[in-house]
Amino acid sequence: MAKGPRERLPKLGQALEAAFFESVDPHPYFELRRSEEAAEERLADASGITDRALLLRLAGAGVRAETLAALILIPLVQVGWADGKMDARERAAVLSGAESTGIDPESPSHRLLRIWLEDRPALDLMQMWGEFIGALCEQLTDHERQQLRKNLLGRARSVAEAAGALLGLGDPVSRQEARVLEELARAFER
């Protein structure tokens, strides 16, 4: 018998975390695991989400701060690499997006992010991100899903707009970035 969304979500979350940290020495992953604190507070710190009900639902669904860090950072990085290169303005926007969510510049997540700013992460990471978001959205109310979507896609769009149009003319989001943003948005519609 197929597993339901509630049973799949923790397993997908663990797979997402493992893929998120796979490209570096495993030490940061275990360092994060050892430093767990209260779930709601850690989720708030990792996400910048202030809606307590949404944080409680995420924690209740088994989402941990490390998973949420991956949920936030993966879209930022994917948009930054959409055109095959990460320019200085996009790099700054990704770092700003991470730091605005409370991700400590000395943390393992931030160290991994800096690696991804130099070397594009594996493309299957995006697929895993989409699967996790889809399973998570099955457990959220429509309002909660829209809040999470707005939070994550808003940060990703900021990265897309960072490079901007030449001399401020035209759309600041390239076609490649727009495609990545559309792909990110589709994950919330599953």
Describe this structure in words.
The protein is mostly helical and about 190 residues long. It has one domain. Helix content is about 70%, strand content about 0%. Helix 1 (about 5-20) packs across helix 5 (about 65-80), helix 5 packs antiparallel against helix 6 (about 90-100) and helix 5 runs antiparallel to helix 10.
* C-alpha-based Rg, rounded: 16 Å
Termini gap = 21 Å
- The percentage of residues in β strands lies in under 5%
The total count of strands amounts to: 0
List the helices and strands and how they pair.
Elements: H1 5-21, H2 27-34, H3 39-47, H4 52-60, H5 65-80, H6 88-100, H7 108-118, H8 124-137, H9 142-162, H10 175-187
How would you summarize this macromolecular structure in one to three sentences?
By secondary structure, this protein is mainly α.
From the structure above, extract its key features:
190 residues, mainly alpha, single chain
